[in-house]
# Entry
Amino acid sequence: MWNFDRNLAEGRADQGDNQNGKGDFFTDLVCVLLERCSGKPIDSRPGVRGRIFRNHNLDAAYSTADAVEALIETKIACAPKSDRNPSQRNALGRRGSADLDKRVKEAGLKTIDLKAEWARVAGQGGGPTGDFITWLRTCKPTCYLLLAVRLVDDKDLQTTVRTANAANSFMDGCGIVCYQPFEDHYEIREVPTHLEMDRVMSRICDQLRASR
# Structure
């Protein structure tokens, strides 16, 4: 992540390189780790139908011949200040938490739409109930959100944790890794145990192993 961001800050990469290169790297890394852990194939899935929207593109998913069983959404937030964002006041760059609210809402909409379509196709009266959160947790596909967030300060960390907790309340799990610049490297910042990336990925792996 440090090397990706230094290329951007020093003008050797543009925003497209940063978004696609760093984002694709994170997604690929998640897929490789989950595949090696579970023994199940994990890959991107374009054109998956939801209840409302006909076309969802899935960052990473495990599928059977019948349907998508597990969805893993991956998001990366924040980049250092560069020549492409000279109006940025903070020398360290944009806050990682600044874009999370929008990205969590996007993941939430996709989760609800996919689960609602699964319930419709199943045709067993399994649609949303009055206890909406419980329904989300019991309906397929299981949906996880994994976030890699570059921080600028402690306040940024606190806001990121609050947003991740919100995602964790309606998804099957949300894991985050937060890193902050210190001189010539990044250091990992501690987050609540239930949000730790490795613990959430371990849960995903356990589910995948148990899948048919």
